[in-house]
Amino acid sequence: MELTKEEESALKGEHGEAMETAYRILVAIGEATNAEKLVPIKWAHLSGVNYNTIGDAGEEFLSKLSQDARVKVMTTLNPMGFDFDSVSKYNLDKNFIEKQQSIKQSYEKMGVIPSFSCIPYEIFDLPEKGTQVSFAESNAAIYANSVAHLKTNKESAFSALASALTGKTPYSDLRINDSPNLTIKMKIDEPNELAFGMLGYFAGKIADNSVTISGVSEMNKRSCKSLCGGMGTSGRCGKFFLGEGKADAEKIDFGKKEMQNIYDELNTSDHGDIITLGSPQLGLEEMADLSSMLKGRSFSKRCMVFCPRVVQEQARKIGYTNELERAGCEILSDCCTCLTPLVDKNEIDSVTTNSIKGAYYLKSSNGVDVNLKPLSQIIKDETK
Amino acid sequence: MTFKVIVKGKASGKILKTNTPINFLGAVDKKTGIIHDKKHDLVGRSIKDSILVFPYGVGSSVGAYTIYSLKSNKSAPLAMICTKADLSVASGCALANIPMVIATEELEKLENGKEITLDTESDKLIVFRG
What is the DSSP-derived secondary structure letter of residue A88? Predict the structure, then answer.
């Protein structure tokens, strides 16, 4: 990869240790993706916020980095482990809360907008089509490329951080034009969001950088986000196209058998002790949907609803939040189903959710069983 | 064999090989290096101090932090050899200073359990020992 003189001197450490680290990361991913140069980006979205995932090593790294590093472009942030507003109601250890506070402060010190959301594409104004951005959260990268027509690779926590600190990224892969060599045909009739999540998980396993999905004319927001979440969890694929795809592309069907295999992999229980909704976090449209689906009904068990803080505030003004709380929902911001310590295997054995991404991490990281159902079925079975 | 060097360095150790991609965040214990994903063929094995040979990393972007944490906890592989580039593994190794290369052909020569020395500064990048 060709570097300018300025970039070379930053890599040599002449602009400080933080810049040297950032350029070392950019050069490694540039080499890995055969980039010829670095290009500017307008927006970085960072993952690596939850103390559960980055641990002491991550907390110490960020604390040291934030002593002199500052972001050069608009930078937003993924969810953390819990919601500071309600953390006292949970049985969380003091160390976790302190370390999470330190991580939050480090990012704020670097000039990052404390959005704590995995759906930046729903809560910030989108730049014009074709704009280069660096999104680390996998569902957000896929949504940005496939729906919002922005350009990003499926960034890592460190590559997006390096882009935030330098305002640059290697020009490679999905940032350049691409056309998928694989077309997956959706053969499920009237698919709900769970089917789309499983389609995404299936596609992620077999696709390379991008994939065409045929047999789908339209998706609602919930299904689209579920597809992005599922796809980001299982593989390296960072973009989907809807359509027929290239004539010579490999063609694979996603039918009942394929869907059953994914279901059997991720569904490990026929019931849940609690319900979680929101991975990805719910946007305003989904909060509105949920509140109308819950009219006159109440949950018979605990139901955690995860949404960005700004969405919670808007929903409160409109009145959705009142309706959801009346129905027994626990509304949480700044965190998400995925990897929150608020779902503790010492307290519960199983979770009912409609999230494929949530299912994967609830099982592998929280260590609880998962009962997968679409939202309509959850409401039918779990409310009165 | 043909290689592309992503992160420079030198390491000697035993190959631990899998043909299944690794989701570092979901599948690897960042303190011990033990793979705890029951669906992964290396379940129960530790990647600590190995020369880890695998196709590529998948899943969460935070997997890069898992690699950095493994190194900080002295439970990281000594080096990684992948068949495809992925940004989480490349950036995680870059920050943690774990030598990493992409091998594009004749990967079958890298057999499980073989002792090798990988040196990105040497003409002969991989030397089989013993």
Answer: G
